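User: I'm curious whether this sequence folds into something compact or stays loose and floppy. Could you predict its structure so I can see for myself?
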Amino acid sequence: MTAPRTSLPTRLAARLSGGTMRLVLLLVALLWLVPTLGLLISSLRGPTDIQAGGWWSVFTRPTQLTLHNYAHLMGNTAITHSLLNTVLITVPATLLVVLIGALAAYAFALMEFPGRDWLFLVLIGLLVVPVQVALIPVTDLYAKLGIFGSMVGVVLFHTAFGLPFAIFLLRNFFAEIPRELLEAARLDGAGELRLFARVVLPLGGPAIASLGIFQFLWVWNDMLVALIFANSDSAPLTVALQEQTRQFGSNIDVLSSGAFISMVIPLAVFFAFQRQFVSGMMAGALK
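Assistant: Here's the prediction. I'll summarize afterward.
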């Protein structure tokens, strides 16, 4: 009796799962890190050295490395103020999306009310609405409310556009919680708020963590929304760096160190919580 013939995809997967595939993935990862390494080295070189040659010249002349750029950056009030604005925008926009999204997802997944399914379909439709569609209507609305150019307007915009994905992700995760567990908690006298805080939130930790990371990365790296809705006093770091590029020749040291700080903080957040991010995203996609 002959053994069953394996398919071509199965044979390819078996061959690519060995050491050769791991070596290829390692090379791809190293190539992906080259721009980050180049930016780091450039942020540690003086303006004269940066203009004299590429960042790779530091391997032959390591004496170029200095912390002068970061000292100069900390003395630039425009950059430091914009960095504080970035934190003041990102943290509230992330917390509001997580809190409101978790409450709404709990209602969609575990509560019965008229029109629930139709509302959820509308929510799914909002996922495909691009940000650019709302720029002009929201600008007019903010002008009437008197919050155009303020930090509050930027936070509200990020919160509004982050909620559809937040509710969709968390709803799919919360729907997998066993109903028997919820009914047992209700029999013990737990109300909806207590049930949400004591049972649903702890079980939904991976999805909530992944949502927080996703929202943090999106808001921290945003420039379009802040460029339109923030003024000079409330502009985040991305807008401040964009304005610094107008004087590229005279402040390249500030740009390199500022760009590295703007990049390394979200990278650190992502790598610190990457396991929760992946598990939460997978959990939301399985339902």
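Summary: Residues 16-66 form one domain. The chain has 15 helices and no strands.
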